Amino acid sequence: MQFWRRRVATCRVDGTISPNTATGFPTKYDYPVGDSHTQCDDGDMVLFNGLLCAAGEQKGCDGVRDALDFESGHWWRSPAIKLRNKDSVDQPNLNSDQALGVMLYILQRNDAKAFRSWMHFIAMNGPCNSNACLGVRAAGLPISVPRFCGLKGNDSNNCMFRTNDCSLLLLIGHYLGEQRAAISVCGPLGWTGLPDPATFQPKIRDALSVYRGAYATITDLQEKIVELHKKLRFAPPPFPPLPPSPDDIEKNFGPVVSKLDKARDAAEGLLKVPDLGGFAVAYAAAAAGVQATAQVNGKELKNGKLVPIIDGPDVGKAASARHLAATSNFILQKFQIKTPGLKEAAAELLRATPENPYFEFLAYGGPNENMLSRIMKTCPADDFDPDRKVRRFQWSWERQDLKSSTAETMYWDCIFVGDLYQRGMQPVKVSGALRNFLPKVEDVLGAIHDAKEALEAQLERVAKQATDLNGMKDALDHQLTSLKGIAEAAARGAVPTYDPKTGVVTLPAPPGAPNVSVDTKKGNVNVGGVCVGFHC
After folding, report:
1. What's the half-sphere exposure (Cβ side, CA atoms, 13 Å) at 212?
2. Residue 474: half-sphere exposure toward Cβ, Cα within 13 Å
3. What b-and-e string marks burial along 221-231, b requiring 16 or more CB atoms within 10 Å of the CB?
4. Which of helix, strand or coil describes residue 499?
5. How far apart, in Å, do the first and last CA atoms of the chain sit?
6. What is the spatial distance between Cα 171 and Cα 119, in angstroms, rounded to a whole number?
7. Is 494 exposed, middle or buried (0-12, 13-18, 19+ CB in 10 A)?
8. Mean pLDDT to the nearest integer, 283-304
9. Do 411 and 5 contact (CB within 8 A), yes or no?
10. Is 154 exposed, middle or buried (0-12, 13-18, 19+ CB in 10 A)?
């Protein structure tokens, strides 16, 4: 690791490469060692410095800490960018990727004051203001996604919160005792990923509306058919039994919605328990989100299955998405709470990039020989680039092709995995009381999950019954059409005969013409023994 440390670049607050790596914060550098260019490449450094900090590198911690404007709470991508006050739509300060580095720093240094200042900035900053967000709100939908940056105009969705951000922030807030600050941004449950009964109401309303329409159509057709039977003096026709009425269906939703309401109330009650309940609910929600992210990030749908993207034009974005999923997993693993599925989620990421030592560390839950082998295989030995012509540019663990990326390593990426291997996981301290509270939360979350599944199953049943009713409509339409034809023939003087057992009506034909019979159930017409219709 000493060789790597001699090759790293650090950046001064004026945005230029420091001539002495003892000063400045870790940075990328787009040129070889000793090049005359002095500009740092520090646009992603709050994420990478956060990772370095979590692995025990003091310089990484300082690089994240000094990127915060403590008075405003605005966290920037680097101390130098903060000083330049540089912000743009393409690279806003901050975004969801970089925020993971901030979270790692806050946990590593237990910096509650910085967390509180940051949450205040986000809460006062207002929701996303892209054209898409503004359009949705203008349409009357109450969608107000928080955002990390301070851009005043259209932010093009580049700094809005993503799925796991609030669950992680709520977890960190409860851990630090700053739950009020976290809730001021994310609300008590709205961003934990737990289902809200209110979100089901439009689905229930729409499903019932479709069902009522189909049910009313069927009953109307049946009434018309019965009326025509009466006019023709036929016996009332038999109809197949109808499914439950819309009113009965609506009543069936009540108990299921009530069950979800009660389970969610129980979760809110736990959230309000100082330290214990809030932390436990937030941890459980964050763990569920992190595991789900690992199953979808960096994948595409092929033949009905999600498969990793490991080549093609989107491979760069896919590999970066897997690295972000791994970093969310890293945050959770620092709590050292036995969580089924967490290591397995990291193993899913490792399968897509088998030589990645960072992913190996998370999949195993700590350093091991496989990790060391991957480090030695990917990171450069001390005879690498003797002429110093290679730029120090890549954080290799966010790339798919590790051989190519480590050929342009910034060396800090190798120091990061080297620290993890030598020092292992540096956990945050979680009290026994907090750990013991988790099983109760699992019961509550299980009840919420069961209630949500019951609601979704009920919605599926209503949709199927509406489809069945529409199927009945076609058959009844055929019956009504044929009956109208019989009624018209009767009006012209033909006297039909009706067999109620078969539902067949026979019309007398003029001399020399073929006999005509009508199957009122199927809507088919037989002319001279030849069937003409829909179901011949």
Report:
1. 10
2. 6
3. bbeebeebbee
4. strand
5. 83
6. 13
7. middle
8. 83
9. yes
10. middle
Structure tokens that stand for 224 in this block: 């018309």
Task: Report the SS3 class of residue 194.
Answer: coil
Task: Give Cα 379 distance to the centre of its chain.
Answer: 34
Distance CA 24, CA 9 (A): 9
Report yes or no: 14 and 39 within 8 Å, Cβ to Cβ: no
d(C-alpha 369, C-alpha 431), whole Å = 31
pLDDT tens-digit readout, 212-236: 888 788 888 878 877 877 766 666 6
> Residues 524, 533: contact at Cβ < 8 Å?
yes
Instruction: HSE, CB side, 13 Å, CA atoms: give it for residue 518.
Output: 20
pLDDT bucket at 495, cuts 50 / 70 / 90? low
Gap between the Cα atoms of 446 and 442, Å rounded: 6
Question: Bridge partners of 498?
Answer: 505
Say if residue 299's pLDDT is above 50: yes
pTM of the model: 0.69
Residue 90 CA to its chain's centroid (Å): 23
Neighbours of 479 (CB within 10 A): 24
Please tell me the predicted confidence (pLDDT) of residue 272.
47
Whole-angstrom Cα distance, residue 396 to residue 408? 8
Q: Are 419 and 330 in contact (CB under 8 A)?
A: no
Nearest Cα to Cα of residue 523 among 484, 489, 471: 484
Backbone angles phi, psi at 518, to 5 degrees: -125, 125
In whole angstroms, give the CA distance from residue 519 to residue 378.
78
pLDDT band at residue 532 using 50, 70 and 90 as cut-offs: very low
Task: Please state the rounded mean pLDDT for residues 128-154.
Answer: 70
User: CA-CA distance, 407 to 404, in Å (whole number)?
Assistant: 5
Q: What is the DSSP string of 256-269?
A: HHHHHHHHHHHHHH
Q: What is the pLDDT of residues 320-353, one digit of tens each?
A: 999 999 999 999 999 988 887 889 999 999 999 9
Distance CA 68, CA 53 (A): 15
| Cβ count within 10 A of residue 485 | 16
Q: What is the pLDDT of residues 448-484, one digit of tens each?
A: 556 667 667 777 777 787 787 777 777 777 767 766 7
* Dist CA 338 CA 536 (whole Å): 65
Q: How far apart are CA 49 and CA 43, in angstroms?
A: 11
